[in-house]
Amino acid sequence: MYEPLSDLPASGAAASGVAAAAAGVGEIFESLPDAWLVLDADMQVVAANRAYLALVSSEREAVLGRSVYEINQAGSAAQREARRQWLDSMLGDGVPGESRLGPPIRYDLADGDDGPLVPRYWQARVTLIVTAHGERLYGLCVHDITRRMEEEAREQRERAKLRSQARLRQVLMEEANEQLRLQQEQLQHALAFASVGAWELQPQSGVFTCNDQFKMLLGLPAAATITESRLFGELIDVEYRERVRHAFDAARFADAPVEVDFRVTWPNRERRWVLLRAARPRGSDAPGAEPHGNAGVKAGGATDGAAPPIIGLALDISMRKESELEHQAAAVAERAARERSEEATRAMDHFVAAVSHELRSPLGAIQSWATLLQRSGDLAHMARAGTVIERNARQLALMVDDLLDSGAIATGKLSIELAPVDLGALAGNIAEDMRMRIEEKGVRLVADELDSCIVMADEKRLRQVIWNLMTNALKFSEAGEIVVRVRAAGATAGSAELSVRDCGRGIAPDVLERIFERFYQADGHGRAPGLGLGLWLARSIVRLHGGTIWAESTGEGQGATFRVSLPRYR
User: Fold this and answer.
1) Is CATH 3.40.50.720 correct for 419-567?
2) C-alpha dihedral (400, 402, 404, 406), degrees to nearest 10
3) How far apart, in whole angstroms, are the C-alpha atoms of residue 437 and residue 15?
């Protein structure tokens, strides 16, 4: 290719013309940073500087005195021909002092003496110089623009790539928009066919953007406007509003959809169930604060700017919900019936065990003492045996009476004959009858506050109630006292109240009501003697008299008080 100038030593026919100039400017020319060649009128190289020789990796002797068309012949034949035409276009006739910039050209050079050709790009600026002696010289400044051309080519490829990508994005966006439009149309048709309501709530305005199906589910015409305040203040039934509002608040913060069902009442009074599914749109940011009740909700249903929108679907689930409610009611009834059955079974098992135990004790005693009577003629033994047999026979009779009364009450066949009875006097008589038994156990009986109160009652049945209460108090008392009182009670003394208080085991609060159940005996202190019928019989008899009975206790180990209230006779 073109060779830069080194210095201006004379060569050939032009030696005499440039000798003087070379002496003054040779050193400057040699040190120029740009690659220079100087050609004579015959296009012979008369000078090449160091920058040129380094640029083309050539020696000075290889270029000086040779035609510029002959040096650096390394490229392909096509490139050498293109190089020749390129030089012709720049080295033609010109105006002295005029500088012409040639077009870029590719001309490959070898990498080293024997290396492969490396793609190179060149550009040259030519200046015609006429010396004082009239000689024409060409200054050829050569530039290696390979890097610039590669960068330009790379930029062009990048720009082409970007243009291609932009066009591709545009095509894809157009296709996506068209597909989205088609999908939206299909979605609307599907929602309408399935009667699914679709909606979006903008918290800033508090207005629902929704399809007609959503309005129909709420019993509204297609032209109606739904706002957040109207939804919670009018459309949703009152008892479900709070749970739906909590669901909306949760949807503003939850990453997953929130579901809630509620009931609405249409203008024609028809009630419908709606399942609502709400979620925050993907990519929307929830407010930093945690939800708390209606925090962030302004008057009229609007919210502050921090709350994200909510989107969702709604579906009519009236048939399914009614079926669920029916199944739930049936399940509750079935569970209650099963519990009652199991309780009755347990009670019966307990009753059978209690009867077996309670009957065995007096029968065993009667049998043993009867045998003793047959074998012994001792009068002392006979008297004692008679007492024991009589006491146990009386106990058996009481048990049988309780069982018979229990059956009569259960079948509704227990009858009472009402007559005026002095409750205070009756309680005093029973207390005296039981005093010896109570005091034999080391318990003190107190019955000194027995007011005269006339009530309409069946004396036999009322005696049975008082006897059962005092027997029950004695059964659970090992020491202390049993206090029996009768007094007028009520704001106008319209009732008489009997109370029996003991200092025994006491009653736990959770079983205060259960102790009046049939066959029930409180656990925790070992099994108490009896059939578990006494308190149940007492309550049943008191109710037949129009009265009430209840128990009081501050806890286990604190004793208990049983109270009976009966209307006074006027």
Assistant:
1) no
2) -150
3) 162
d(CA 438, CA 475): 10
Share of the chain above pLDDT 90, in %: 26
Q: How does pLDDT run across 185-195, given as a tens digit for each residue? A: 776 666 666 67
Domain 195-316 coded CATH 3.30.450.40: no
The type of residue at 298 is K
Q: Is the pLDDT of residue 406 over 70?
A: no
Ordered by start, the domain boundaries in the chain are: 12-144, 195-316, 323-388, 419-567
Q: Residue 454 above 90 pLDDT?
A: yes
Q: Which residues contact 458 (CB under 8 A, 6 or more apart)?
A: 416, 417, 418, 419, 545
Distance CA 558, CA 551 (A): 13
pTM for the full model?
Answer: 0.40
* Positions of E strands within 53-166: 99-101, 105-106, 109-110, 117-118, 121-130, 136-144
Closest C-alpha among 280, 221, 211, 275 to residue 250: 280
What confidence score (pLDDT) does residue 1 get?
41
The DSSP line for 218-279 is: TT--TT---BHHHIIIIIB-HHHHHHHHHHHHHHTT-SS-EEEEEEEE-TTS-EEEEEEEEE
